[in-house]
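subagent[fold] <- orchestrator: predict structure for attached chain, return tokens only, no commentary.
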Amino acid sequence: MPRAVQYSRFGGVDVLEVNDVPTPRPGAGQVLVRVVAAGINPGEAKVREGLFAQMWPSTFPSGQGSDLAGVVAEPGSGVTGFAVGDEVIGFTDERAAQAELVVVEAANLTKKPAKVSWEVAGSLFVVGSTAYAAVRAVAPRRGETVAVSGAAGGVGSLVVQLARRTGARVVGIAGPANHDWLRDHGVVPVAHGDGLRERITAAAPDGVDAFVDTHGDGYVALAVELGVAPERIDTIADFAAIEKFGVRGDGSAAGASADVLAELADLIQTGELDVPIAATYPLTEVREAYTELARGHTRGKIVLRP
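subagent[fold] -> orchestrator:
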């Protein structure tokens, strides 16, 4: 029997199990994918902990995960464009990606370019769609300055690169250990912590035109203090600030499509976009993977390999 990550009650990593499950079968318009890599994300941990139980209820046992890449095992009826053996990148809205086999809507799949690694492909959807939507929301223009909090994290590392592609100057807020990586990607690094506002002002003497907050914890208020217009501030982490300050909250849902995945994958294929991989774990070590994620200091993505 195939295996899948599941949990039967809300809680910490200790509630996660890797269980034998029945082999799923694709329905009309669906594809059965044998998963090669699946990314993990902070939002999944919050759902599992019950923090979003009112917004996104769980039915137990619940699976976990959205991001995936793998090989088509069986197309369902009516599916065109995908055949057995095709390598694909995709996503599921059914909390099911962290498994050996998963049924995916054909509309949520795109072909995996040959030069995109399995680890990158399997962890692309959530961070890629979120970064794409966040940059689009603040609409950087050539010659402007964009500040990004959490600039070397899973989402932030893509936000800074996509913002740079618009011709904007990017100031990346991150710990000193990530400053060389930011500089290598054309980003001006500044350290977080006390005195941050002064450091940003020194790095951007002509002011900050747009701000993408991937971290939360007061960065939206800082952006407002820096004089950034609310409509040019986007946060994916501070939902209270969206209502309080009237800023934008475009994230994964606003960028979720196979077309966006295909566009990002093409940029990776041609070397124009770099998706850092922090660590890879076997599916059986899913608890260890989420423990590492919770430490909050990884550069880029943590990936499971079934």
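orchestrator: received. Logging for downstream: The chain has a mean pLDDT of 95. The longest strand covers residues 30-39.
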